[in-house]
Amino acid sequence: xxxxxxxxxxxxxxxxxxxxxxxxxxxxxxxxxxxxxxxxxxxxxxxxxxxxxxxxxxxxxxxxxxxxxxxxxxxxxxxxxxxxxxxxxxxxxxxxxxxxxxxxxxxxxxxxxxxxxxxxxxxxxxxxxxxxxxxxxxxxxxxxxxxxxxxxxxxxxxxxxxxxxxxxxxxxxxxxxxxxxxxxxxxxxxxxxxxxxxxxxxxxxxxxxxxxxxxxxxxxxxxxxxxxxxxxxxxxxxxxxxxxxxxxxxxxxxxxxxxxxxxxxxxxxxxxxxxxxxxxxxxxxxxxxxxxxxxxxxxxx
Length: 301
Prior knowledge:
Layout: H1 5-24, H2 52-59, H3 64-76, H4 80-84, E1 91-92, E2 97-100, E3 102-104, E4 110-112, E5 120-123, H5 126-138, H6 160-173, H7 184-195, H8 200-207, H9 212-216, H10 223-230, H11 240-250, H12 275-280
Antiparallel strand pairs: 1-2, 2-5, 3-4
Helix pairs in contact: 3-5, 3-7, 7-8
């Protein structure tokens, strides 16, 4: 089976680096791969669910024991290792929020969250709150303290491989032309909020990014939005399109029929709680973490 060009370039890059090191250590007289050309591939944009309805259609093909964890992931924007480390002590259902400050490092060891901005309170969307309520009812005898909120089907820790495989199967069964990963759910949330005309700085607060440029990388434009953007231009003053566009702006005719974006709205129940973002997105006061200064710098996902 032939290898893809990206795989060949990756292997060639590693090989060139190994030869360069051997040459520097004088183990080889020269680097035989020094003149080899390597194509640098751009960063791949993760796939995301275009609308909430598409997400729920795909979720119908997910095993029941994994549906709640994906709902919470999609409606809170938690990173996978943050979601896996969520404890019952971090959940405040009476206040409709969760506390985000636990994490697992890449080796699966308990750690802290990625940055100061990531350590905060997060308001719960009604769908996420209902999913956590179901988990609490199913685990009512042990749903307390430092016990993890979500566990795998066999009682182990939730991981990205399990969720990615589950989502890939669900997307395939639902007939979607793309495969959304667990990280793609963060991109999905960002774009649902964008379509709901949530300000970009609020989206940055929900995703808990330090730099807005990181948030900008999560905001994508699909074909329907491109069509809607182009059709906002009026054209020549005497053209029929100019008159139609002016009529659409004054409300005398419906929006452009070639786009479905104007009909998309964020899931019912989220908008009334957007005002909670500013009131609850303050960093939690510093606490003693029982680690040395070096351990404070553990990188999250």
